[in-house]
Amino acid sequence: MNDAASNSNGVPLCILDDVPDGGGLEARAEVVVLRRGDSAWAYRNVCPHFSIPLNYEPNTFWAYGGELLMCAHHSAMFRFEDGVCVDGPCLGARLTPVPIRTEGRRIFADE
Ligand code: FES
User: What is the pTM of this model?
Assistant: First the structure.
């Protein structure tokens, strides 16, 4: 396993266990990492409705059942798996994915 400080496999985001299971973590500015068990997804922390962060309070994300992330502003609901809005004012819009890779429990942005 590569060391996070010296790896050549992307920008270190976080450790999987730092992300609440079934919730989200603001891993870097404008990146939210979502987790369900050992699976993780990352998106730009920008709601497609008004192009503002999905959270209202720092590093506080509203998630339901480990399946849906809710924007704190007007309650748009986005699927963890693909970032598609399945309910709310921007129905059908999509969060911008941030490609990630994992090494053990470490998550890197593949950028
Ligand atoms: S800004 Fe996210 S639903 Fe309106």
Answer: 0.91
